[in-house]
Amino acid sequence: MSMLASGPDSRRLNPEPCRLTQSEKEHASGQRGFAIWIYGLSGAGKSTLAASLERELHRQGRVTVMLDGDDLRGGLNRGLGFSDTDRTENLRRAAEVAKLLVRSGLVVIAAFITPRREHRALVSTIVGAADLALVHASAPFAVCARRDPKGLYAQAAADVLRQFTGRDSAFEPPLDEAGLTLDTSAESVAESTARLVAYVTPRLVPPHA
Description:
Elements: H1 10-13, H2 22-29, E1 34-39, H3 46-59, E2 64-68, H4 69-73, H5 84-103, E3 107-111, H6 117-127, E4 132-138, H7 141-147, H8 152-157, E5 180-183, H9 189-200
Parallel strand pairs: 1-3, 1-4, 2-3, 4-5
């Protein structure tokens, strides 16, 4: 005979278990779900800083997830171009993924150009301002062009690559939305990482700790 109840009272007798809350997951992991969103021009050092930050947080015993613009454009966001509409959709999808991961009690480190202030506001709205730190990797266009790690500036200069941020498409510097600005043209990776770790670490302590 089945032990499962059936009939009109089955839902009352066998309620679905409640989903684990973000707080419960944070309690189990000993860390707060949080997103660090590093933005700036191509070549400003976003991915380098993200990787360096992840390594330092790993040493602290944090469980992290990296979201990189190039990786997502090759998978989840494949097919999106660089029009204003596609850029916004690219960032919306990335922010929704970040939100899900944060709600799971993970530390998310995201690296996206995020060129416009309205884009940063969108990310903040989706993820939640309380669970997000916006970090501006700042470097002048000329410095990024000299670095040109992916050859994108050369392609843009040759008119092979269109809608390039900072040249054909505007990058809006932060007004008051940047919690931290790192001048990667004046600081070493180690110096910027140290400042970033010091800024982020206190925010990763769960409220109940």
